[in-house]
Amino acid sequence: MQLDRTHVVVRPRSNSELCDLTLLLMRQYCIPLCVAFLAGVLPLALMNAALIGWLPIEAELEGIGDDETFAWRSEYLFLMASLIFLEAPLAGVFATLYIGQAVFEQRPTWRQVARDAWATWHRWVWKLGVLRGPVPAVLLLVWTWSLGDADGLAVFFMMLLLMYVGTLRAFRPHTPEILLLERCPLRRGATGAVTYSHRSHLFHTPVAGDSVNRFVTMLLLSGMLTVSLFFAMIFLQGVFAQRWSFNIVAQLVYVPAAMWIVAGYTVLFRFLCYLDNRIRLEGWDVELGLRAEVQRQFGDPQSQQPAPGVGG
């Protein structure tokens, strides 16, 4: 691995440059990133469909009034957007592991990606799956549906959960990178490695303002991209199938598809923000150049370890 040869030029960037670079990365690694992201998305998408997919189906079958149909559709859209927002970091585990190595002009094998994910599964399942909201959201919906007519209760508690998780994501956005790429343990072991909490505090505190700014920027951009993608799908449906309505297929397929595509974009954007913060805070570009020269001159005694700052 040549540490000073990367597909991403290692330098500080503005938010607009990071957004543009995200699109370039999506084009450069289109197929492998699609495979990696789909591996994380498919089980979650099927679970979401089982949890709330019955809302538009029941509205269509019962043929209820326009006002009630609008309310049911609004509830479905809100709950689907909330679930995907909470699940996006969890769904992007394989994509994050892949791109963390691919930027160093190294194409990791799927076996290597799966092995790296398995080696730290207890960390990211706990942090990204439990503490960051997906598991509590699923349990919340199961509980509210078991109560019967408790749609308003589900929306209320979901809003509270979104406020809590949104605050965490705004001030501590790079939990996936710290857990998956730097592999920081949750607790200090015999090796004395830097723990996740300590690393997160050192990394996030100096860039808290920039992190919140980027979170709000990406939140607004994600909304616009999702609407654009959805209406593009509706347009194609109208052109080829002569159906321009917001039908059941649009609700069950187009809506989550547009949201998940944008979620994949946010995963890559977050990764590039992580690299940008490391450059600004730690002089990561200089470190890579120095370590690459040492590697060429004296060999790499840690050649079996992950790349510095990305995998270790």
Automatic annotation (TrEMBL):
Keywords on record: Membrane, Transmembrane, Transmembrane helix
Transmembrane regions: 33-57, 77-104, 124-146, 152-171, 215-236, 248-272
Superkingdom in the source lineage: Bacteria
Name of this chain's protein: Uncharacterized protein
